[in-house]
Amino acid sequence: xNKRLAFVFIIITLTIDAMGIGLIIPVxxxxxxxxGGGDLGNAAIWGGVLSTVFAAMxxxxxxxxxxxSDRYGRRPVLLISLVVIAVDFVVMGLxxxxxxxxxxxxxxxxxxxxxxxxxxxxxxxxxxENRSANFGILGATFGVGFVLGPLLGGLLGEFGFRVPFFAxxxxxxxxxxxxxxxxxxxxxxxIRRPFDPAxxxxxGALRQIRKITSLARFLVVFFLYEFAFYVYPAVWVYFSKxxxxxxxxxxxxxxxxxxxxxxxVQGLFIRHIIPKLGExxxxxxxxxxxxxxxxxxxxxxxxxxxxxxxxxxxxxAIVIPAMRGIMANKAEDNQQGEVQGIxxxxxxxxxxxxxxVLTYVFYASTRPESSFNLPGAPFLFSAAIVSLSLAxxxxxxxxxxxxxxxxxxxxxxxxx
Length: 416
Hints:
mainly alpha
């Protein structure tokens, strides 16, 4: 029961991470305009800077926190990060300097890089057979936070645009108290690994992971897929306004349906799909499904069908849990934090570059002086990227990516 409560704590932690970002999205423009004194365009530029800084710190620090959790344990890393996150949100709510906001996003990015530690905890308490299904929880929490965060942030913003920051700090504090009482330590002396600074950074961790058969190649597939799938948060707002003339309410509804569907797919459907198809076939199906959806969105002109397609497109998110499951099963027990750290950094790297590239593709394909007008061009570009990742995956070397066969021996690990 205690381990199940701990699993609930991990779910809440990851949801709060997603909600914490979403809570402040509706009020960030007003805060930035008050602090910076500029117009909305200037606020958007600073908002992009803050987002990039946050993602960059997650990329740089993810392997470090993952390796630290392999040495010092998952519990202290997760609990200390919650303390830092709570204080960080309070400082953001009180900030009256743009550079103080930049510092808070640097610190917040470091503290929020614990997704790798949370993923390592899930790997610790899971069996090889159910790891992929349990990793679906990571994506499900994003979907829930993606919906609830902006919704609550918008409602709380009515009482003052600094209120959501304090609400986010309160959520982190609540979860810190819960974790203090229910979170066990899963790193034992048997699997504890010495902390090595040389391998606790993205490059050092990647050099170590290259020693695991085909994992570096698999990370390339993972990066390409994450890059392409980020077309939804990066471009959807601009695409739907240009192509269909949607207002903010319609855009919000379509994104909410997308977020809810991701939570359902990765939290529920994945537990039925992977046992039937296996991880490899699940990945192939998901990649082909994404290519198909991206091609449709590239040329769609009907607002009605686009709105219906938004939640359906979330089915493509089944790829990520299956990928994480294979990578976790390839690593040793004392490498879970390190492996999940480099996975988190790979994901952050995609988040850093994808918005820059995909929004430029949208700009180039919709500017007035362009020889053609195609708002869906970013989706076609993403379809090409996913096609490349599919080609790399299916043409892998023999035996490079394998699925664990079910064990007949009983295991002491639990199935949350």
